[in-house]
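In practice, a research group might receive sequence data for several interacting partners and want a quick structural hypothesis before committing to experiments. The following worked case mirrors that situation: the sequences arrive first, and a predicted assembly follows.
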Amino acid sequence: MSSLTDRYVHAVTSQLPEAQRADIAEELRGTIEDTVAASPEGMDPAEAERQALLELGHPIALADNYRGEGRSLIGPRLYPAWLRTLKALLMWVPALVGAIMLVVGVIDRDPPLEVLGGVVNGVLYSALMVAFWVTLGFAIAERTGGEAEVLEVFGGPDDWDPAGLPEPQRRQVSWGDGILSVVVNAFLLTILLLPGRLGGDLEGFAWGQIFTDTAYSLRWVLAVGMAVSLLASVFVLARGRWTWPTACS
Amino acid sequence: MDIDETLAAHGQEIRRGTVVLAALASLGEPRYGYALLEHLADAGIEVEGNTLYPLLRRLEKQGLLVSEWNTDESRPRKFYSLTDEGRAVLAALTKEWSALNTALQTLTRGIS
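A structural hypothesis for the assembly, expressed as tokens:
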């Protein structure tokens, strides 16, 4: 069996970039030996080694220190840029795709339900795609040391202008948000209650089915949840703010 | 969180920023990791190895320190020492520290 030190050094360096491993391993080994050598005389060497490792702390924590930051999918440095980019894209891309599907459906004179299905599919898929690719891009940047300014399409924090700050509203929930919430809820409820499943078959390949079999069989449960959510959003729209009973539901 | 924990957290926050200055100030002559840790402890700067050793590498990456393996002794050791940039940063940080010190002494005058 390898020594405690060997196992410790390996546990730390295996989490570090390949290029740094050997050098950090050698330095760490030397440091541990130095620490052990400096322990009080008469101390059992095995115990001294154990103490030295305990002092250095958990291997994962030490490796994090060597890397310079904790590990997260998107760290605090890139998070604001990620959030801004995601919001901006989610505001436009799905709406655009939905509109295109609508126009295409109307031009093709498809039955209304089919058009609706196409629009819903387009919106949901493009939203999913946007969220996935933006997150993936930022996660890669997080690991490769990319700069937030390079990734951000819509202007970094330096671009903001205090004059653009919105007026404080007496209504905590704006009409726009409130109406959007009601519409989205009604929309989702409609999809859930539609006869038949969305999506279709193209040369034997099923596309665009947003519900798995399990999800589909649970759609009545989902529908009840959506109905409650719809009532809550109507209530919020009427009151202009969240209150305790609506926040709970 | 009780008051002791709060105090410990704030104290740690104050000390954290001083470690870089303390390390740079000690590396006018080359030192290896453990020797630097001892040197700082003797001077009254308590810093943990798991903070100091990675910090040395970061400072080296930033060009403030340069390192060299010494294999003359029984175990190979990595010695760190200041670069010219490191010396300049040390001077600037020392100035900043003394300005902060003066400011805080003014603000805390009369507090035991």
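Before designing any experiment, note the following. DSSP finds five helices and three strands in chain B. The radius of gyration of chain B is 16 Å.
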